[in-house]
Amino acid sequence: MDAANTVRKLCISNHGMKLAPVAMFERSHRHRRQSREDETNGRCAEIRTNREDGPSKYPRKFEIEPSSLGRCRAPLTIAQPALHAPKSPRPSLATNAEASALLKNKDEVRKLITYIDLTTLAGDDTKSRVVALTDRALAPVDGDSSITCAAVCVYPQRVADVVKHLAERKKKLNVAAVAAGFPSGQYHLQSKLLEVQLTVADGATEIDIVISRAVALEDDWETVYNEVSALKAACGSAHLKTILATGELKTVSNVYKASWASILAGSDFIKTSTGKEATNATLEVAFVMCSAIKRWYQITGKKVGFKPAGGIKTPKEALAYVALIKDVLGADWLTPKLFRIGASSLLDNCLKAL
């Protein structure tokens, strides 16, 4: 990313939620937060947006274009008073009740299959295993050639095997790979960038990276933002899915901040978990992440995808996320372009439910 001397501010006013300002790009020293507005650069343009339930009665402010944020090396910090993540107005019981109702509709279960990133991330994955996984993703339902999984997801070393097999079969399928120090994120940035570049060169069309939780837990959102920005650039034309590893972020406020840092840095999707944490996807953190996605869309008109992953094994569990997505983001998000589920055993259980 090119260096930029311009300091950008993202200011959002939210009716009745005490979330203004949401985030601020400010100049600061790493260990001494001294913020000062750069009066020589830009001006905040007030943008009034419409909501689905009618015209907004309150202003939202956004400085310059979102694309300029990607070139900004100014520290990303959370403005005081500290940002508080939104709380879900709907208990999990309500979402699970909707999932039970959806489960009775076989078409909803079939749709679930189209959202799945069919995944194998085992240390003993072989060429034959990922080839078999690819064939299964291409035709998951016997006798119904119209249904495919959204993607296969493998380790970088196995990407070339999948790409070659698809070429031999003359088939198309999204090929996702975990990269950039997955699952810990505890790697040098240069090695992360190289791994992403090599994986894309092998033919991956989607890259699932993971943020450094150690950095996030130190409240160093500048580094989180800058690393994701650099990895987005390394992806080139491949889509970037950024994993927050929410089970290790300790608080929902950190989940919300990490969501914003990842979205601002250019992520095409934000994803809950690596599947390797003690706590993986939950409806509560999904609501927080989707709230950040919704806010971004209201401000910019740009849609960011959402991917829950880890521990989602049954159709009912998966349909609870479908119900939540529809409730928070709307039916427009219920497409593989904007909604994925990371899973290895969900497909088998979906087929049993058909």
Write the layout of secondary structure elements.
Blueprint: E1 9-11, E2 23-25, E3 44-47, E4 50-51, E5 54-55, E6 60-63, E7 76-77, H1 92-103, H2 106-115, E8 116-119, H3 127-138, E9 151-154, H4 159-169, E10 174-178, H5 189-201, E11 206-210, H6 213-217, H7 221-235, E12 239-243, H8 252-264, E13 269-271, H9 283-300, E14 305-307, H10 315-328, E15 341-343, H11 346-353
Parallel strand pairs: 8-9, 8-15, 9-10, 10-11, 11-12, 12-13, 13-14
Antiparallel strand pairs: 1-2, 1-6, 2-7, 3-6, 4-5
Q: Can you tag this structure with a few keywords?
A:
single chain; 354 residues; alpha/beta; TIM Barrel; 2 domains; 15 strands; globular; disordered N terminus; schiff base; Aldolase_TIM; DeoC; lyase; EC 4.1.2.4
Shape: globular
Would you tell me which CATH topology of the largest domain applies? TIM Barrel
Which secondary-structure class do the elements indicate? alpha/beta
Average pLDDT works out at: 79
The CATH H-level superfamily of the largest domain is Aldolase class I
Distance between the termini: 48 Å
Question: Roughly how much helix do the residues carry, as a percent range?
Answer: 25-40%
Protein name: deoxyribose-phosphate aldolase
GO molecular function: deoxyribose-phosphate aldolase activity
Family: Belongs to the DeoC/FbaB aldolase family. DeoC type 2 subfamily.
Enzyme class: lyase
